[in-house]
Amino acid sequence: MKKYLAIAAITAAAFSATSFVSPSTAHAAYCEARSAYATGWGSGHISYARQRALNECAVRTPRGYTCYITGCRY
C-alpha cells in the first residue's frame, strides 16, 4: 500500500511541476487588428487577445471606419 501511495505522490509532484513550467496554450494567443488608418494588437487568452486588439485599433481609428482581426497566432 505504501508503494502505491509513493508512486501516486511522485506522479502528482511531477505533473504539478511540469504544469507550472510549461506554458498553457490557452494563454499563448497573439492577435492583430487593422483598419485603413490604424493597427492594434493583444495577447493572452484567445478571446481577450482578440478583444484587446480590436479595442487598441478602435481607439486610433477615426469614427465611421471599422477594425478587423487580421490574424491570431498561438
Question: What do you see in this structure?
Answer:
It is a single chain. The protein is of the alpha+beta class and 74 residues long. The chain has one domain. The protein is 47% helix and 24% strand. The protein is built from two helices and three strands. The chain has helices at residues 2-21, 46-60; strands at 29-34, 39-44, 68-73.
SSE blueprint and pairings:
Blueprint lengths: L1 H20 L7 E6 L4 E6 L1 H15 L7 E6 L1
Antiparallel strand pairs: 1-2, 1-3
Please describe the structure with a list of short key phrases separated by commas or semicolons.
47% helix, alpha+beta, 24% strand, 2 helices, 3 strands, 74 residues, three-stranded antiparallel β-sheet
Short account of what is shown:
The protein is α+β, with helices and mostly antiparallel strands and 74 residues long.
Please state the average pLDDT score.
81
* DSSP E strands, number: 3
* Helical/strand content category: alpha+beta
Q: What is the string of helix and strand elements?
A: HEEHE
Radius of gyration: 21 Å
User: Which range does the strand content fall in?
Assistant: 15-25%
Q: Roughly how many Å apart are the termini? A: 43 Å
For the biggest sheet, the summary is: 3 strands, antiparallel
Strand order of the largest sheet: 2-1-3
Number of helices: 2
